[in-house]
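Weekly sync, protein design subgroup
Attendees: M.S., D.O., the rotation student, P.L. (late)

Item 1: inverse folding check
M.S. brought a backbone from last month's batch and wanted to see whether the design step gives back something sensible before we order anything. D.O. pointed out we never logged the input encoding, so this time it goes straight into the notes. Structure tokens as presented (356 positions):
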């Protein structure tokens, strides 16, 4: 790895949260449907109610299985479930208001009429979810209003249903407001979390090169020394970098640093690390012995030679390599790598020296 592992996209986390929530709703309704079917013989359910429960259970089992196996189908599964639920609520209310009085009426179904709002806010962003919920609520209000104003409505039924219908309206309005506010707070939380994680990630990176900075490299080094297996460090320094700044200006020097950073990213293997140690110095952590580290330096120097800077030409580096000893501290290992680097400088630069 050449960079700190990027913070997991919050859109991915959001998707996982929403998919899990929809699976929970589908699974819960499936279980409730099966339980209700198991006791229907004691409650004298009509044949039509039994068939509807069977269809509901089959629908939820199919959608649950689909979403479980194909996560990418989340939006389609959610929209299907939302459409079915909205249509069922409106149809059920219409049938209750335009049928002869019965024992059940809305009955136990009244508490399930709020589920479309829950599904809407799971499947859709806040604004579309509010629009869908408001549209369904408006449909309920319109249906109830037409029923209340219809001269053919039995006054006794109108009086008997007035309180249940009023409570239904108030409950639905409360749920829409609650879910809308919850979605608003959730959005604020997600944005704050994203900002905090982004700042934490940027605190581990060097502003100029985008490579991990000294602090992050120190953490990696401390952790790597505690793990089994060989570990080598390569401390490298750009040769005559001051001359580049003095001759071509600091912008050209910055461009050289960015170019070297790009080459470093391509030079390390999976499981290795690289970052900017400070100034024109870079540090590489290599899983392996000095021979593995030497192979990395050879590849790095060849890539630098093949990609000269636009203004200053070929970039040359001096490298100090040190293999960690058992029980050695990060400070001791880095000190030996630094001594090897200075040995490479004294040997004429553009070379690799190995710590004793």
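Designed sequence read out in the meeting:
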């Amino acid at each position: 790895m050449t960079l700190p592992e990027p913070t997991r996209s919050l859109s991915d986390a959001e998707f996982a949260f929403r998919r899990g929530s929809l699976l929970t709703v589908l699974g819960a309704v499936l279980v409730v449907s099966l339980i209700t079917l198991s006791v229907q013989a004691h409650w004298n359910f009509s044949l039509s109610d039994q068939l509807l429960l069977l269809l509901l259970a089959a629908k939820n089992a199919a959608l649950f299985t689909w979403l479980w196996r194909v996560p990418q189908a989340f939006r389609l599964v959610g929209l299907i479930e939302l459409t079915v639920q909205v249509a069922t609520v409106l149809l059920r209310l219409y049938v209750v208001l335009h049928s002869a009085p019965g024992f059940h009426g809305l009955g136990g179904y009244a508490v399930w009429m709020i589920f479309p709002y829950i599904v809407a806010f799971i499947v859709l962003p806040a604004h579309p979810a509010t629009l869908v919920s408001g549209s369904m609520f408006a449909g309920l209000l319109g249906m109830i209003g037409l029923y209340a104003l219809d001269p053919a409505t039995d006054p006794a039924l109108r009086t008997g249903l007035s309180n249940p219908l009023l409570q239904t309206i108030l409950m639905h309005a409360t749920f829409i407001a609650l879910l809308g506010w919850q979605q608003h707070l959730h959005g604020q939380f997600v944005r704050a979390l994203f900002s905090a994680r982004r700042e934490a990630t940027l605190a581990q990176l060097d502003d100029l090169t985008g490579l991990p900075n000294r602090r992050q490299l120190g953490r990696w080094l401390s952790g790597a020394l505690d793990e089994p297996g060989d570990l080598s460090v390569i401390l490298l320094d750009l040769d005559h970098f001051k001359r580049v700044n003095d001759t071509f200006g600091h912008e050209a020097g910055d461009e050289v640093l960015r170019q070297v950073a790009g080459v470093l990213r391509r030079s390390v293997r999976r499981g290795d690390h690289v970052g900017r140690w400070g100034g024109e110095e870079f540090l590489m952590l290599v899983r392996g012995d000095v021979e593995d580290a030497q192979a990395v330096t050879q590849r790095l120097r060849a890539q630098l030679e093949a990609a000269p800077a636009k203004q200053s030409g070929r970039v040359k580096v001096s490298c100090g390599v040190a293999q960690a000893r058992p029980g050695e501290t990060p400070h001791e290992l880095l000190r030996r790598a630094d001594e090897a680097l200075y040995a490479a400088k004294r040997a004429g630069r553009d070379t690799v020296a190995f710590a004793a």
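Discussion: The radius of gyration is 34 Å. Confidence is low (pLDDT under 50) at residues 1-10.
Action: P.L. to compare against the previous round before Friday.
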